[in-house]
Amino acid sequence: MSIHPVSPLFPRQKVPDLALPLVGGGTWRLSDQQPQNFTMVVVYRGLHCPICATYLRDLDGKLDDFAARGVGVVAITSDDAERAAQAKEKWRLAKLPIGYGLDLDAARRWGLYVSSGRGPTSAGVAEPALFVEPGLFVIRPDGTLYFGTVQTMPFARPHFADILGALDFVIAKNYPARGEVLDRIAPAGVA
Question: Domain ranges in the chain?
Fold first, then answer.
């Protein structure tokens, strides 16, 4: 498998389509989502990551808050079906849909970083040979990126309480997606 360099996604541009099997059955497809305001895709590292467990438990407890704001949510991973099912059960994720088997080339098209496994983590679970690092994407119903963040490490992820507060402002003010400039930017004073 050849892994391509990370390519960033840009606000106000279409994101690549995404379709993944779900723990418990069925398939989650981005193109099938019809949220009132946004779809939020949360990418997590996998069963081996204790920080992911805490992070996704927090999200699971806030799903009703996101739904009240017209935001559909899914968490996805490059883990296989067995590891994803173990994470959902072990981490007590009662409501959060978990998509698994994210292809690493597809992950790169989403601008995600990929790491190589280094053995067991502090959770006592071995890292896979290759796996995705965290990302979070907020997507408009038309399939364009509104907000995105990707990370090279498991630490310092956006807090879901902060995202909920930001969504209140964004929805109330119809705040535009930012970071959308694609043209080369000339330094000040240069034509």
Answer: 19-173
